[in-house]
What we know:
The complex is a heterodimer of chains A (779) and B (163). Chain A is an alpha+beta fold. Chain A folds into three domains: 13-25 and 200-289, Aldehyde oxidase/xanthine dehydrogenase, molybdopterin binding domain (Aldehyde Oxidoreductase, domain 4); 293-401 and 411-470 and 624-776, Aldehyde oxidase/xanthine dehydrogenase, molybdopterin binding domain (Aldehyde Oxidoreductase, domain 4), CATH 3.30.365.10; 474-621, Aldehyde Oxidoreductase, domain 4 (2-Layer Sandwich), CATH 3.30.365. Chain A contains 20 helices and 31 strands. In chain A, the strands form eight sheets. Chain A has a seven-stranded mixed beta sheet, sandwiched between helices. In chain A, a hairpin with a 5-residue loop joins strand 16 (293-304) and strand 17. In chain A, helix 7 packs across helix 8, helix 11 packs parallel to helix 19 (741-752) and helix 18 (663-682) crosses helix 19 (741-752). Chain A starts with 12 loop residues before the first helix and ends with a helix. Chain B has 163 residues and is an alpha+beta fold. Chain B has two domains: 3-80, Roll (Ubiquitin-like (UB roll)); 88-162, [2Fe-2S]-binding domain (DNA polymerase, domain 1), CATH 1.10.150.120. Helices cover 38% and strands 17% of the residues of chain B. Chain B is built from six helices and five strands. Chain B has helices at residues 25-32, 77-80, 88-95, 105-118, 124-130, 142-162; strands spanning 3-10, 13-20, 51-54, 57-60, 73-75. In chain B, helix 3 packs across helix 6 (142-162). The radius of gyration of chain B is 16 Å and the shape is globular. The chains are: A alpha+beta (779), B alpha+beta (163).
Amino acid sequence: MTWVGQRVARKEDLPLVTGTGTYVPDFDLPGTLEVAFVRSPLAHARITAIDTSEALAAPGVVAVFTGPDIRGKVHSLVLDQEAAPPGLETAEPEIYPATIEMLADGEVRHVGQAVAAIVADDRYHAEDGAELVRVDYEELPAALDPEAARLPGAPVVFDNVPNNVQARYRIRVGDTDRALAEAEHKLAMTVRSQRVMASPMETRGVLATTVGEETTVWSSTQIPWWVRNSIAASIGVPQRLIRVRIPHMGGGFGVKVNVYPEEVLVTYISRLLERPVRWVEDRAEHMVASGHARDQLHHVEAAYDGLGRITAIRDRFVLDSGVACPYPLSSAYNVASHFRSMYKIPNFAIDSECVLTHKMFNLPYRGAGRPEAAFVMDRVINAVAQDLDLDPADVIRRNLIGDDEQPFRMGMPYRDGTEVVYDATGFPAAFERLLELVGYDEHRRTQSELRTRGVHRGIGLSTYVEGTGVGPFESGQLQIDADGRVVVYSGCAPHGQGLETTMSQVVADAFGIDPQAVIFKAGDTALMPYGAGTFASRSAVTASAAIIESSNRLLKRIKGLAGELLEVASDDLEVVGGEVRAVGVPGRSVTLKEIYRSATPGPGARLPEGTDAGTIDTFYWVPPTVTWGFGVVGAIVEVDAETGVVDLKKIVMLHDCGRVINPLIVEGQIEGGLVQGIGATLYEHVVYDESGQPRATTFLDYLLPTSAEVPDIVQEHLEGIPSARNPLGVKGVGESGPISPPAAIANAIIDALKPLKIELNELPLSPATVAAAIERAGG
Amino acid sequence: MNELEVTLRVNGESRVARCEQRTTLADFLRGKLGLTGTHLGCEHGVCGACTVLVDGASARSCLMLAVQAQGQEITTIEGLGTPENPHLLMRAFSEMHGLQCGFCTPGFILSAHEYLREHPRPDRESMRTELSGNICRCTGYVKIFEAVERAAEMMAETEGASS
C-alpha cells in the first residue's frame, strides 16, 4: 500500500490534546528573567528624554535598556530578502530595503514601537517597571494616508526612502492603452482591501538561554534560519553561536514570517546577562507590534465587449506599508501575478507602490496579495455583468481559459523571475461543477419569487489561481540511526500544518515502513546549515521534494552497503520494513541497524569501494518555479435589506492542489482558510484614527469568526493533473481558502439585492457598509 | 507586594502555593503549579484558550484571581486525561482532525466537556452557540464539531459496553 493519499490521523496530536505541549511560555528554565516593553503611545514623535531610574529601583527589576543603551551594539535590521531576482527586469522594480528598528532611538515611528526593555525576575515585576519609565515626547506630524504620503512635502518615515515609496513595479502585457481607447464598453472602480491581522491564537514569544558563548533561542517563528542569520548580523556574532529552534507554536499565517526586534533584543540580553531571558507578547502588544497585512487601495479600469469578454485591465494600487514592507514581492507583486486568475485577458497594465506611513508594518498574510487581487478582479467581472445586464456566471464562462489553451502563458514573470505558465487544466469543468453544487440554476428560478416574500437571497462567485511551492529552496536530510530507525530532518518550520505526519507518509512510502515509525525533526538551525521555513503554501511541495531526493540518495547508499554485506548486486535489493532484502531470495536480508553498524567509521566498517562512511544524505531542493493550484468558490447569503446584516448560509469551494498527500489535512486547511476569509470579509478591520492611534486593540474591537459565524461548508478536491514541477506531483494548498471569500460574498450580497444594483467595493462588509451601499443605491 | 497562601483542589488533589493578590488563576496554575496546558491567548476574556472548570463550570482563568478560587475544585486539561490515558474527547479531537496548532485545544476540550455533559446527544445548532466562547483560528470549527460528535458517540459506546 501507498501511504501518500491516505487519511492518516496526525502523529503530532497527543501532546497538544493533553495539554503537555511546550510552547514558548511553557518552558521552565531555572533563573529565567522576563521582559516587558515600554511602547510608543504616539504615531510619530521625537523622544526628548527618557528616565529609567525609578524603573531600575523597582522590586525585581534587573536591567533596563533604551535605544541609546544599545546604540552601536544592536543594529537595526535592514531587510532586503525580497530584492528583485533576475528575470523581473521587465517589471522595472525599484525596491529599497525595509528597516526594522530594535529600540527607538530619538524618534518613534508608530504606536507600539518598542522604546525600552525592562528585564525582571517575573513578568509582573517587569510590567511594574515598564510603568515607571518616563518618556517625554514631542509630537511630530504623521504620514497616515498612503496616497498623500507619496507626495512631496509629506512627513518622511525613513530618510533613505524618497517620498516614502519603498517599492514600486509596473507590468505591461499587450497594449492596454489602445484596448481601452478602442473598447466597446468600459468601467472604472475604486476597490479597497482593508488592513487586517493574521491573529494566530498564540502571540509571538522568544526565550534565549546562553551557555558559554553559545545561545539557544526558542522562538515562535516561521523562519528559524532567517531569524538566526538576522540576530547574528544585528548583534555582531558568528551564526554558529546562535541556534534558533521552534517549540510548539500556536499558529502563524504569515505574521511570524518576519524577524522582529524582540527576537534580537532577548538574545542580546541573554548573552549580556548570561541568563535565560524570555519575552511573551500579550495580545494588546500583538495588535500594535506584530505585522498587519493587506491594506490596498486599487483604481481599476476594464475594457470589454458586448458579451462581457474582458479585453483589458488597467490597475494602479498603493499598499499602505506602515513603517516597512519587508516582503514587497509577496505582498504587492503577487497581486499582479494572480490578478487575472483563470481569465484570458490579453491586455494588462498594473502599477504598484508600497508606501511608508506611521503605522505598524505590513507583512504577507495567508493568501499574500491573492485575496486582494481576487477581490478586485471578481468585483470587476460582476460589475461587467451588471453593466451589460448579463448573468455573472455567463461573464465568467466567456472569460475562462479553455483546456485547449493550456498551458496558458500570462505574458509576465512570476516573482521568482520565471514566466507565469499555468500547469493546471480543467477551469471550465470546475466552474460548471461549482454551479451545480451551489444550485445556481435553481436559485435563478426561485430568486424573484423569494424576494416577493421578503427573502433577499444571493449567490456570488469567485475564482482564483495560486502559485505555490515558491523557492528559494528547501532542505531535506535522511539518515538511519543506531537503532535502525529512519530519521528525517527538514528545513520547514511546522506550526499546525501537520507536516510531521505528511512528511512521514512520504518517507514511509520510500522506505516501506509505517509513518508512525518515521522520526521527523524540523525547525532547528542546528540540524542543517540551510533551511527556509513554512510560509507561502510551500512546505508540502518543497519539503517533500527535498525529502524524496535525499531519500533516493540514501536508498542508493543503503543498497550499496547492503550489497557489500549480502554479496548481492544493489539492483536486486529492496528496502522494506526496516531491512534490505534480496528480491526473490527469502531470508537473504540485512537490517538497517546492521547497515548503520557496517557504515560506522572505524576498522569494523564494511564499505563498498568509493563509499563514504555514514548513513546520511542531504538534498537542497530548488524549485524550477511555482506550481499552480486553482479553485472556484460560491457563497450563498441572505441579506436584511433594512439593516444590512448578512447571513452567510453556505460556502462551496472546489480546488485543485495536485496530488493530495493526506485528505484529512487538506480538508482542514481549506476549512480553516475559508473561515479566515469569511472573517476578513465580514468582520475584521485594523482601524487607525486620524492621529494614527489604533482603534482595534482587543478581540472586542477586532472580531474573529467564532463557531456561531460559520456557515455550511462544502468542499471538493478536483482530480487535477499532478504537478510535473516536483517529484510527488503536489501543489500547495495552505493559502487557498481565504482568497475568494471576499469577492464571492460581496458578489452574493449584490446578487441578493439585484434590483438595487448596489456597489460593494470596500471591506469589511459590515452591516453599516452594506446599509450605506443600499442607501446610496436609493434602496 | 504581600503574598497570600492559596489552597485549591486541582484535578482532585489539594495544592497550596503562595502568590500575590493580583495573580490570575491562569498564572497561578501555570507558574506556581506548573500546569502549562492552560494557555493564554488574549488575557482579556474573549478567546477562551484559558478555559478551566471551576466547581465543574467553565471559567476564564485569565479573568479570575487565584485568591478568588480559594478552596474551590479546579479541573484543568491535565485533569481530564494524560498522554498515557487520554480522555475520549482528546482521542476524538485527534481522530477527526479537530486541531491544527493545538493552542486553543485544551480550552476547547474543556468547553466541549461541559457542553457534552449538558447535551449528551450533540446537535450542530446548539454546538455553534455553546462553543462560540472559544476561538480557533486554524480549523474553521467544522472538524471541531465533528470531533465533539465523535466523542459523544464514543462515550455512548463506552456507556453501552459498561451497562
